[in-house]
Design goal:
Blueprint lengths: L3 H34 L41 H4 L2 H29 L1 H26 L4 H29 L1 H21 L6 H17 L1 H45 L6 H39 L5 H11 L5 H18 L1 H26 L8 H48 L18
Length: 449
């Protein structure tokens, strides 16, 4: 019995110490919470019914806690996650397309500012693609590079100059005969209109002629300004021809060094792909120019012979025009053929014009279905829709020069893009880890391991 009070005393002392330590820990935790969130708000005293509830006091900037009866508010999602996936993809593609469109717009503005220089350089590239094989053959025969370049360039430009002089000479030589035939053709057309079932009277025809004469007389100033603009255009054409000649000469002589210098401007990571695409693009351009020249020459010869045998004047100049307009795909053939038909109609009458139309259509059908697929081949084949759209876009941007260079530009771009795509796939396959070698088959039962 004497031991029980001592044991109870020790138990009470232990409990007291434990309670004291618990109170200390609670005070320490409360102090840490007050240090983080501030002291707790005082509990308001009971107020009589109808009295206004005072706002709880707290530190500056502290938002009071909502009352217990307030409804719970769901957490708002991240705005980026709230937007549907399709709209996010469209927005990502949209701003990139805007950047690309802005870049193209700036590029087109720069090109339009120096349009003469750009067209002269592109024409020099086309002429170089035509003459480069001749330079290579002369160098294989043992001629130095400078001499081979000079002989090829001088011969090519002399031939072009002679062709131009011959066309001008033929036009000037037959101008009187053509004028007389035009007057006779107009009289025949007038008589045909009077005898036609359209009930056209001579007074109506005279009124039309008088209106044309009055229009020309009224617009004399516009015609004069157009003539002055024509003088400016002639000066620009001569400047462009000189730039084309010098560019062609240096491209024939130092074309390889120019290409190597251009490769140094390309980033190092993209340089192997561009270096491989360049020769293939040049081969495509060369094939296009040579094939187009051959096809245009065949068109000019056969349509010119048909016009000559039908006794249409200016057969040789018309053949040259057909040759030149053949470099504008689709559109050039229509314009040159229509010009030949109009000349035949005005000079020789309706029957001769119909025969010229038959000749033009026959030669163009043979060209489109036989000559171009056989001569140009699949390397430079472009879809007709792409041809029409690119010729129209090139004509709107840079006139006749833009229409001429549009299709070879698309053909070269098609070759470059195809090669770069294949090159990228090949590089991706090379970077892939090699699969492990197959394990040998397990031995069958009864065979030694």
């Amino acid at each position: 019995m004497t031991r029980t009070p001592g044991w109870l005393g020790r138990l009470g002392e232990g409990l007291s110490r434990a309670g004291k330590r618990l109170q200390e820990r609670r005070a320490q935790a409360r102090a840490e919470a007050e240090a983080e969130t501030g002291p707790p708000l005082p509990v308001p005293a009971e107020l009589p019914p109808g009295a206004a509830q005072p706002e709880p006091a707290g530190p500056a900037g502290t938002v009071p806690a909502p009352p217990s009866y307030a409804p719970a508010v769901a957490a708002r999602p991240d705005p980026a996650n709230a937007i549907p996936w399709g709209i996010r993809v469209a927005a990502e593609a949209g701003w990139r397309l805007l950047v690309l469109a802005g870049t193209l717009w700036v590029l087109m503005k720069v090109i339009s500012t120096v349009q003469l220089v750009v067209l002269a350089f592109v024409a020099a590239l086309l002429i170089t693609a035509l003459l480069q094989p001749t330079v290579s053959r002369l160098r294989r025969l043992g001629l130095p590079r400078g001499l081979a370049t000079a002989v090829t360039a001088v011969t090519g430009f002399v031939i072009m100059g002679l062709v131009g002089w011959f066309v001008v000479w033929q036009v000037m030589d037959n101008l009187g005969d053509v004028s007389a035939r035009v007057r006779d053709g107009i009289e025949e057309l007038k008589q045909w209109a009077l005898d036609s079932p359209f009930h056209v009277t001579e007074s109506q025809i005279n009124d039309i002629a008088k209106n044309l004469s009055d229009t020309i007389g009224t617009n004399t100033e516009e015609i004069t300004s157009a003539g002055l603009t024509g003088v400016t255009v002639v000066a620009e054409v001569l400047t462009g021809m000189l730039l084309t000649m010098f560019s062609t000469l240096f491209l024939l002589y130092d074309g390889k060094k120019v290409w190597e210098w251009w490769l140094k401007l390309v980033p190092a990571q993209a340089r192997p792909g561009v270096a491989g695409a360049g020769p293939r693009a040049w081969r495509t351009l060369t094939a296009y120019v040579r094939g187009t020249v051959i096809v245009a020459l065949i068109d000019a010869i056969f349509i010119g012979l048909g016009i000559y045998f039908l006794d249409v004047p200016l057969a040789v100049p018309l053949g040259v025009f057909i040759f030149l307009f053949a470099f504008i795909p689709l559109v050039g053939a229509v314009i040159s053929g229509a010009l030949a038909v109009v000349v035949a109609l005005v000079t020789n009458g309706v029957f001769t014009a119909l025969m010229v139309l038959v000749v033009v259509l026959a030669v163009q059908q043979i060209e489109g279905h036989v000559l171009q697929p056989f001569i140009l081949g699949r390397a430079v084949r472009v879809h007709p829709l792409a041809v029409v759209l690119t010729v129209a876009a090139g004509g709107l941007v840079a006139g006749i020069g833009g229409a001429v260079v549009a299709v070879p530009l698309v053909a070269v771009t098609n070759t470059v893009v195809g090669y770069l795509r294949a090159f990228s796939e090949e590089q991706a396959l090379r970077r892939m880890p090699m699969p492990p070698p197959p394990s040998p088959p397990a031995p069958e039962i009864g065979e030694p391991a």
